[in-house]
Design a protein that fits this description.
By secondary structure, this protein is an alpha+beta fold. It has one domain (11-148): START domain (Alpha-D-Glucose-1,6-Bisphosphate, Chain A, domain 4, 2-Layer Sandwich), CATH 3.30.530.20. 24% of the residues lie in helices and 46% in strands. The chain has a seven-stranded antiparallel beta sheet. Strand 6 and strand 7 (115-125) form a beta hairpin. Helix 1 (22-30) crosses helix 2 (32-38). The longest helix has 21 residues, at 128-148. It is globular and about 40 Å long.
Length: 153
């Protein structure tokens, strides 16, 4: 009888310590005006977002590159525990050539004195390449968040 190899879904975990109180960092992740200030891997991108922060509510983030290309992400909130945890689906189109469907993001916020330890887990990537692109993107977003909040790691 042939054996079937079970391959675990591809996931990405990013940990960062942000030099701001947990409530402030949580707000940066959950308010559209806040997301517009930092949610992009490059500070030259212009961000436009919308947030309906409730379980079952949706979000949409558009990152406009200076050359006119647009990265888009959208999904639905599955769990919201202020200021500790966010869980949401992640779908999107990156510059019109890569479709990302049905991935899941969990963001956890832990108090660390007057700073916040953030652990992001992004699950269910379809390919290692897609995981790698998102690793680059998330690290850039965290760099930008730290810059906006005046943080040092």
């Amino acid at each position: 009888m042939p054996q079937t190899e079970v391959i675990a879904p591809l996931e990405l975990i990013v940990n960062r310590t942000v030099n701001a109180p947990r409530e402030r960092v949580f707000r940066a992740w959950t308010e559209a005006a806040e997301l517009d200030n930092w949610f992009s891997p490059d500070p030259d991108y212009k961000v436009k977002s919308s947030v309906d922060l409730r379980v079952g509510g949706s979000y949409r983030i558009e990152m406009h590159k200076p050359d006119g290309q647009v990265f888009g992400a959208f999904g639905v909130y599955r769990q919201i525990v202020p200021p500790e945890r966010l869980v949401f689906t992640w779908n999107g189109i990156n510059c019109g050539d890569t479709v990302v469907e049905d991935t899941l993001v969990t963001v956890e916020f832990f108090e660390a004195d007057d700073r916040t330890q953030v652990t992001l887990t992004h699950q269910n990537f379809q390919t290692p390449e897609m995981r790698g692109r998102h690793e680059h993107g998330w690290k850039g977003c965290f760099d930008h968040l730290e810059s906006v909040l005046g943080s040092k790691n």
